[in-house]
Amino acid sequence: MKYQHTLCVLLILLLSTTILPAERLRKWEFINPADLQVTITPEKSELISGTIATFTITIRNRTNHTINVHYPTGQQWDLAAYHGHTQIYRWSQGYTWADAPHTIPLKRGETRSQQLTWLTVDRNGEALPHSIYKIHGMAMLSPRHLVSNDCIIRLLPPAIKPQQLIETRLNQMFDIELPRYSGTYELDWQIDYVYNDNRISVHSVNRSADKVIVTFHPKRVGHVEFHLFAYHDTQDATRSLERRSFRVEVR
């Protein structure tokens, strides 16, 4: 009986020597992710493909006490861009950082921010296809980095025409005239509705010597917004040359 009591005492002492240092380590090194908020905001939500996109990444202390934010290296921030589910860009790729662990205190409600940029070209230096891209910002904390909210931007073709307003009546056909050629290349035009709700539809598309005439049929009262993208007939629609925007008021 005395032997069993001694064994229990030894086990308790052994557990105490292993648990207490781990608790102290967690208090110094580990952070509850719920205590910090990481956000990313774009300077522009739409920009010309091939130009520089700028983002601000912010980390904020959400608690009512000071948090010691620990970084395992000299890197504090990162950024990743996605097309669909594929990562196509990582800001940190190609960089190296010194093995310099350091800690920065964040007071209650305090924030720290950093701007990072992305040149929106592919690995061959060509402008990326016009499309929607998702961006994540990251705070490179220890023992794991924290990821921001989703940030969405749209890359646009090189030329953007100002929005045109068209007022028309129900069942009164109207035309939009577009150029047929860009230099020696014939253009294809693709429509992208921002908002329609079946208020208008394309009735016909006709071509003259130098123009494309798109005739629309207004079928319901209300407003419609759409874009027309022009691209060479030898290229994919995501390599558009220009965008023309329209707002139609059907009365």
CATH architecture of the largest domain: Sandwich
Number of structural units classed as domains: 2
- How would you sum up the global shape? elongated
The CATH C-level name of the largest domain is Mainly Beta
Characterize the largest beta sheet: strand count, sense, and whether it forms a barrel.
6 strands, mixed
Mean of residue pLDDT? 88
State the separation between the terminal residues, measured CA to CA.
96 Å
SSE arrangement, N to C = HEEEEEEEEEEEEEEEEEEE
Query: How many E strands?
Result: 19
- Count of DSSP H/I helices: 1
**Global structural class:** mainly beta
The CATH topology of the largest domain? Immunoglobulin-like
Structure, described:
This protein is mainly β and 251 residues long. It has one helix at residues 2-29, and strands spanning 36-42, 46-48, 52-61, 67-71, 77-83, 86-90, 102-106, 111-119, 132-139, 146-147, 151-156, 159-168, 174-179, 181-182, 185-195, 200-207, 211-218, 222-232, 242-250. The strands form five sheets. Strands 2, 5, 6, 9, 10 and 11 form a six-stranded mixed β-sheet that branches. A five-stranded mixed β-sheet has the order 12-19-18-15-14, with no helix packed on it. Residues 17-29 have low confidence and may be disordered.
Please summarize what this structure is:
Helices cover 11% and strands 53% of the residues.
